[in-house]
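Here comes a specimen:
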Amino acid sequence: MKGLITGGSRPTVEAGADMLRRGGDAVDAAVAVVEPAIRLAREWYILAAGQEYLIGLVGEAILCYTPGSAAIFAPDGRLLRAGERFRNPALADTFERLAVEGWESPYTGALAAARWRLD
């Protein structure tokens, strides 16, 4: 799947789906967990030294393999450094889709359909 990095495990996603199926307070809890992540991914946060180190380990050849990933990890034509702003609007969109469609979306919803279009 060129250009797609998947994260999380199926058991993690299924645990979130179980929370949504239960309804009530469990749904509120699931949404409360996702909202701060959406905000940080969409707006920005300051990259820490450890994150700069990991970005350096992975390297430009991998993190800038596609224009989309280069826009995230090297928005000014070089890899991000500690103290700089990190944004990932596509990740925020994914989290929003999960909140709207539910935690099974990566397997049966719009996220699953988008994943197959990247193959």
